[in-house]
Amino acid sequence: MARYIGKRILIAIVTILVILFILFLLLQLMPGSPFNDEKLSAEQIAVLKEKYGLDKPVVVQFLTYVKNMLKGDLGVSYALSPDTPITDLIANRFPVTLKIGFFGMLLGTLTGMLLGFLTAFFKNKVLNVFYNILTLLGVAVPSYLFAMCFSYFLGYRGKLFPLLYDFRSPISSSIMAVVAMSLGVMAVIARFSKAEASDVMKSDYVLFAKCQGLSNTTTILRYVLKNSMMPVITVMASLLVGLLTGSLVIEQMFSIPGVGGLLTNAIAVNDYSVVIALSFVYSVLYIVVMLILDIMYCVIDPRVRLGGKPE
Amino acid sequence: MSDKAQAVIEVKNLDITFKMPTGNVHALRGVDFTLRENEVLALVGESGCGKSVTAKAIMGILPENGMINSGEVVFHDGGESIDLLQKKISWRRKNINGSKISMIFQDPMTSLNPTMSIGAQLIVAIRNHEEITKKEAYARSLELLYEVGITDPERTMEQYPHQLSGGMRQRIVIAIALSCNPKVIICDEPTTALDVTIQNRILDLIQKIQRTRGISVIFITHNLGVVAKIADYVGVMYAGKIIEVGSIFDVFYDPRHPYTWGLLSAIPDVSDEKGELYSIPGTPPNLAKEIVGDAFAPRNPFALDIDFKAEPPLFKASGTHYVASWLMDERAPKVEMPDNLKERIASMKKEGLLYVEGRE
To answer: Which residue of A83, B209, B288, B295 sits 20 to 30 Å from the alpha carbon of B164, by its own alpha carbon?
Structure first.
């Protein structure tokens, strides 16, 4: 098990380095430089270049860049608020995005698994119709549309929740955003859970357990649940990407002071360093989540944990 | 071995239909047989003839679209006779499955839970029926693993299915099936998915366990070589019916149904110099359509007019031997089995194929 996890961590580190390299290349290949201002004289540009270390050879620049990025120094903003360290720009915003994303994912996963597994286990017609409607809507309708509906019906008409994010009541003012984001996750997870659980329930080992006289409850708890989890975990990884990009729009709609707003602003004013720093942070976040999922596989499935073939 | 032995399971006129999106498939069209104490009954026939469906109906694990139209599965236990089909599935799980009747599946690679250790699977199966401590269940598990020929049971208890070979897994499946001392074990092609060398060992194991424990076995297979080795009684199935049933000697040495003739002729024979394999012409009927007359008639070179109009009943050939063919009717013309099958049977007799140790 330790070997498996060690290997995963190593792969994660290599992936991060590769991402850094690509980001650096992008910066180099981008036309112009931060000092494209016509008012600047050649001497002034040289001074600026020296100040930021841009006069050094590319290799040295890259090494410094990697060193600083890994240390957590993401550089400074050029345009949004010149010379402010990007870490400072992100520091307050990132936790908000992370919290909303995490709860969206958690809520979506839990409700999705509940809906999917219950539909698979009980084979109830009413439940099945309910399942079909919910998952179809969840898969087909983008999260911002849900967000708009919630805003209008629950926020504006029902006055149940504040329309915009409020620092004084961060929970009640982000509920609509979290639920809107969770619905897509819920739908996909429910579909996977149901399909997988239905398959496992027809598998030979479940039939064999029934031939041994194990009750439905025991077979579900000890045989079906664990064996249906693997594909669900796999799909969670890809859902996460959708969730992160989806949150960009949702954050704007509810004026949530998260990274999403920062990113859209940075893109609008061509602040490359901020865009690239955020891409890096998103990538690292994604890699860390993948690592956690890989470790979860390991805990659930002995085939991953122990590796090996028949003796 | 004899007719006098007590019946354990009696299947009477079992009739099952599967509901399919394209229409209904009449999988079993009235199956009758009796399994007696301390006896191995082989059910043989081509794929799709209803062997496995019969087994699943006895275990109460038919898929949801399987509907039992009529019939009985009577289980005799002591003085009691219970029609299992009249009981609730939950009752059968609690009182019959595992503790009285158990089943082994074809593919040992998929019969065990991949995320549970062998030990845990054994202990769950044991403690499901008996209120004993984990320690006692563990001790019993070791004995069971030892009984099925596993040399290092302590180690195997800790292992997971993917760490074991197919033969080992099938041994473990057998151990789990035996864990609550059932009276009957249904083996659904238990050796088909294994290497040829392993097949024989698993077969020997099943035979040894059947004899030492004195249990009854329903052995489903399409391999007549296996039948010759293990079975006391044989039921030949075709298109959802038993068409010939009798002792192993009745069916192998004195087959009466043209389909059984075909099956016996189709056994590959290494001593045959021409080396051509025989196969029964045609294909089994489509069970999605209602069958009129004898289902085998279109493939039967000896078919009579009546075969296409009315279904033959089971005619009695001898004390233990029954055949569903109009050729058995006294008004039917005398038809002899093909000559090369006669030779085949004569050579089987000479080789003493059926004179297996322990068989009367």
So the answer is: B209
Look at residue B42 and give its three-state secondary structure.
strand
Neighbours of B114 (CB within 10 A): 18
Q: How far apart are CA B76 and CA B103, in angstroms?
A: 18
Best residue in A204, A212, A228, A230 for a mutation probing chain B (most B CBs within 10 Å): A212
Q: Does the residue A297 lie in any domain?
A: no
Q: Which of B206, B336, B346, B203 is nearest to B271 (CA)?
A: B346
pLDDT digits (tens, 9 = 90+) for B231-282: 999 999 999 999 999 999 999 999 999 999 988 888 877 666 666 788 888 8
How many domains would you assign to chain B?
2
Distance from CA of B11 to the nearest CA of A (A): 18
- Tell me the C-alpha distance between B8 and B215, whole Å: 10
Q: Report the number of distinct structural domains present in chain A.
A: 2
What ipTM is given for this predicted complex?
0.91
DSSP characters for A62-85?
HHHHHHHHHHT---B-SSSSTT-B
Enter the tokens of residue A88: 């400072």
User: For A72-111, what is each residue's pLDDT tens digit?
Assistant: 888 888 778 888 888 888 888 888 888 888 899 999 999 9
**Number of CB atoms found within 10 A of residue B37's CB:** 15
Please list, in sequence order, all residues whose beta carbon lies within 8 angstroms of the beta carbon of residue A150, skipping any fewer than 6 positions away.
A161, A176, A179, A180
Check whether residue A75 and residue A99 sit in a common domain: no
**A252 φ, ψ to 5°?**
-60, -45
| Nearest CA-CA distance, residue B73 and chain A, Å | 16
